[in-house]
Amino acid sequence: MKLSLKPVIYAIHFLLVGIVIFPLLFALVSSFRPLDDIFRYVSPISWRTFIPTSMTLEAYTNLFQLRGFGRVVFNTFFIAIVTVIFSIAINSMAAFAFAKFNFKGKIVIWALVMLSFMIPFEVISIPLYSLVNSMGWVDTYKGLIIPGIANGLVIFLFRQFFMDLPDSLLESARMEGASWWMIYTKIIMPLCKPVTISAGLLTFILQWESFMWPLIVTRSEEYRVIQVAISLATTEHATFWNEMFAATVLAVVVPVVLILVLQRYFVQGVASSGSKES
User: Fold this and answer.
1) Same domain, residue pair 51 and 72
2) pLDDT: is 158 or 232 the higher one?
3) 115 compared with 275, residue with greater pLDDT
C-alpha cells in the first residue's frame, strides 16, 4: 500500500503559513488595543491573544493627530511614486541601448551594471552620502529620490525582455522613417506592460521599505518616511507599542495590496525577462 505524502506536505504548508501570519495577526490585533493591554494576554496564549476585549482606535488617532503620520505617509508615497516614474523611464532606455545597440565598451559597462545590484548598499552608503552632501541634497526630496532611480536589477529585467523582441520589427519601423525615440515610445514600451509593472512594483517596494538611506540622508521631520517613523515609536522613556503596531500595519498593507492586485503581471514580467539568457 502506497502512502500519500500530501497530508504531510499540507501540514508543513499550514505550519509555515502560521509562522508567517502569527506576528502579522498579533500586530494587527495589538494596534486596536489600549497600550496597557498589549502584552497582558500573551502568556498563556488564549483566544484573548488574538481577539481584543476592548477595542480602540487610539493608536491610529495618535499617529495622525500627535505624531504627524499623515506627512510621513505622504512623503513615502511621493518618494516611491516619483522614483518609479523616473526609474522606469531611465532604466528602460538604458536597457534598450544594451539590448539593441552596439557601442564601444558595452560589455564592460554591462558588467558594471550587473555588479551594481550585487553589492550591498551598506558598502556604498558612506561614499554616496558624501556625494549627496557635496551637492547640497541632504534633507531634501532630491537626496531621497535620485539615488534610488538607477537600478541595475531593473535594467536587467528590461534588457532581457527587449532581447526577445525581433530586430526585424525595429528595422521595419526604421525603414518607415520612424526615429529611435518614436520606436521606443510608440512600439517598444507599449509591448512591455508586464515587465514595466514588475519593475515599477519592485522599485516602489524598495523605496517604501527603505530605512537606512532615509535615516542617513534626512534630519528633519519634514522628510521623514514610514520606516524611520516606525523606529521612532521607541523613545528614551517609553515604547508606544500600540502605535508601533499600528504604523507597522499601515506599512505592510500598501505593498501587500499592490502585490495582490498586480501579482499576475509581476509573474509574467519576471518570467518573460528570465526567458532569455544573458
Assistant:
1) no
2) 158
3) 115
Q: What CATH number did the domain enclosing 213 receive? A: 1.10.3720.10
Q: Where are the alpha helices (DSSP H) in the chain?
A: 6-30, 47-50, 58-65, 69-100, 106-116, 121-134, 141-145, 152-163, 167-175, 180-182, 189-191, 193-208, 212-217, 226-231, 241-273
Q: What average pLDDT does the structure give for the chain?
A: 85
Question: Tell me: the pLDDT tens digits for 149-197?
Answer: 999 999 999 998 898 888 888 888 888 888 889 989 988 888 888 889 8
Q: Are 80 and 204 in contact (CB under 8 A)?
A: yes
Burial status of residue 95 (CB atoms within 10 A of its CB: 0-12, 13-18, 19 or more): buried
pTM of this structure: 0.84
Of 209, 205, 211, nearest in space to 228 by CA: 211
Whole-angstrom CA distances from 223 to 69, 74, 75, 144 are 11, 10, 6, 9
Tally of domains within the chain: 2
User: Which domain does 212 fall in, by range?
Assistant: 67-273
**Cα 217 versus chain centre, distance:** 19
Q: Is 278 within a domain?
A: no
Segments in 218-240 forming alpha helices (H): 226-231
Query: Does residue 172 sit within a domain?
Result: yes
Residues 30 and 84 in one domain: no
Contact 113, 156 (CB under 8 A): yes
Measured CA to CA, the distance from residue 86 to residue 149 in angstroms comes to: 6
CA distance 240 to 246: 10
